[in-house]
Amino acid sequence: GRLADGIARSVSGLTDAVTAPFSDKVIRLGVTGLSRAGKTVFITSLVANLMDRDRMTGLRAASTGAIRTAYLQPQPDDTIPRFAYEDHLAAMTGAQPYWPEGTRAVSELRLSLRMQPSGLLGTIQGARTVHLDIVDYPGEWLLDLSLIDRDFAAWSEDALKRIEDRPEAEDFRRALAETDLTARLEEPAAQRLAAQYTAYLHAARAAGYSDCTPGRFLLPGDLAGSPVLTFAPLPPMPNAPRNSLAREFQRRYDSYKRNVVRPFFRDHFARIDRQVVLVDILGAIHAGPPAVEDLRRAMTDILTAFRPGRNAFLSQIFAGRRVERILFAATKADHLHHSQHQQLTDIAAALLRDAKDRADFAGAKTKALAIAALRATTEDRIDHQGTPLDVVRGTLASGKRAALHPGELPEDPSHLLDPARQGAGKWLDAGYEVMTFSPAALSLKPGEGPPHIRLDTAAEFLIGDLL
Ligand code: GDP
Q: By alpha-carbon position, which residue is closest to atom 18 of ligand 1?
């Protein structure tokens, strides 16, 4: 009605009388990836570059001028924390730039795009507004999907088998051996086990392992310390008495699924239209073959969430809807000279295909890409003992300038995905370790390219068709 029209107009601050707020298009764009994959940097840079579109030639609606303005607005969901865009942007673009704090929980930001195509089409259609609701959430939470169909015994068996020979789990294994699991539950004993298991998950992530459930143990948000996060995998205890630690852990696991995992998928995940999954492939390659194998499995698990047909719970919450496009993006490509970017894209494509081969994505369009949301380096070619060497230059965390060549990537990406061959190659030598470039303000000379790598291509794939 007219009243609602008026309210919507005053909220958006528009004065245009022909505005039709109820026909405004809304795109919910999900941004995920494991911790440190680059979600925060990606969202901050995407929003900044959509507001100031000079460097977005690969996004058609930007290069044609169809996007007239882009501005932030109050988000539609009042109870989801707002993505701290201004803080993150200030960190990355201040006089002394630094990387912002990464994603810890779900957050949201609404960017509204005022559209007016030029020419006849624009005259006929008039101006319209497209709202881009960006939803940022940890990829770790998606891994929890694998818990939905698994009971405590099955999950425990998997988890315990995985950590059998991992040194990171030594303390947890010892704590488990020292605890009487059939004894009456004492909260301190439960907390000790949960703390040891959580410490293991953190150590495993630091060592490059990706397959770490339950996801909230790593990123608890406001659930930290609650009973629903105070359990751990246990060996089979079929005859554990009531009120024992073993029985209580089983109950808490079920509660975790019911009260944490399901609501997240239902309230956030099932409403997404477009999705970008960010992956730190270079980091995993550098960490070594077991980390790559683990990343491969974690990505398959994460991408499972986008195949609702395979899963009764997902089919039910999606109720016929689906995520229409999924971009699988290898981040931090600015660590490589562009002569190596195609190889990185090929590896991302191989990872995506590997997951896809197990079942398709119910008609969703998919694409793999190597990107850098914020370029921290410039390219150069130096003379290395008589042969030319392609390098990237940047400022290290210590403040020192450095030119680095990170080493070779595998020629054939299938070698990375084949457990039998993962040890065969030696990729990304030790030099890569010191490549923690600061987000230096680049003094970009003509020819040095934009302050991002293929962020515009990413945006075109994700939302270009709807603009
Ligand atoms: P999140 O945990 O997924 O939110 O990850 P962040 O966005 O916080 O990124 C984690 C870290 O990766 C940052 O602190 C940077 O060190 C690095 N990083 C992320 N994006 C880029 C990029 O485009 N270029 C470079 N060189 N480093 C990046």
A: 38
